[in-house]
C-alpha cells in the first residue's frame, strides 16, 4: 500500500512513485500539473493533450488522474516535488550524498536543474570532509555534481581525485547508480596519468 503525500492540497494529478530498490516505500503524491509543466520540459510534454497523461488531465474534471512513475525513487521524488512547489520548510540545507545523487538523477531525467539551481549551489557547497568519504560516496559526489551541471564540478573533481584509490573504477562499477549514470568519459578522466601527475598524485599507489 502506497503512502499518500499531499504536496499541493489543490493539486490536479497524482504521481504514483513505486521505486525499484526497496519494497514498501511507494508513495502517491498529489501535485500541481501546472507547476510541474513550468519547472520541467519533460512534464510539460507529458501533460500535453496529445499524450495519454495530458488527455487524462483534460477529461478528469472531478477526479485526479494517476501517472505511474515506476522507476523513480520515492524519497528523492518527494524532495524534488517539495522544491518545485516551494514547500521549502521541509527541505534540508544538507542531505546525505545518497539522497543528493538520487535527486540529481531525477532532476536530470526531468530537466529540472534550472528550477533547482539555488539549492544545487547550496548542497554542493555544503559537502565537506571529502577526505573522510569512502570510494562509493566519492562516486556519488561526482555523480551529483555532474548531473546537476554544477559550476563547481571541476573543483570537486580536483578534490575527489586526490582521494581515489587505484581500483576506484571497479568499486564504482559495483553500484548500479554509479555505473549507469557516470559516463565512461568522466570515469576515464580520473584515470588519466597526466591528470594525476598534474595534481601530484602517485597513480600507482593511490592516495
How would you describe this structure to a colleague?
With 207 residues, the protein is α/β, with parallel strands linked by helices. Helix content is 51%, strand content 9%. It has a four-stranded mixed sheet with strand order 1-3-2-4. The radius of gyration is 19 Å and the shape is elongated. The relative contact order is 0.10.
- Major β-sheet profile: 4 strands, mixed
- C-alpha Rg (nearest Å): 19 Å
Structural class: alpha/beta
Uncertain spans: 196-207
Oligomer: single chain
How would you concisely characterize the structure shown here?
The chain is of the alpha/beta class.
What topology emerges from the helices and strands here?
Elements: E1 3-6, E2 13-17, E3 27-31, H1 33-39, H2 41-46, H3 52-59, E4 66-69, H4 74-84, H5 97-109, H6 113-125, H7 135-147, H8 153-161, H9 168-173, H10 176-181, H11 184-191, H12 193-198
Parallel strand pairs: 1-3, 2-4
Antiparallel strand pairs: 2-3
Helix pairs in contact: 4-5, 5-7, 7-8
What keywords describe this structure?
alpha/beta; 51% helix; 9% strand; elongated; disordered C terminus
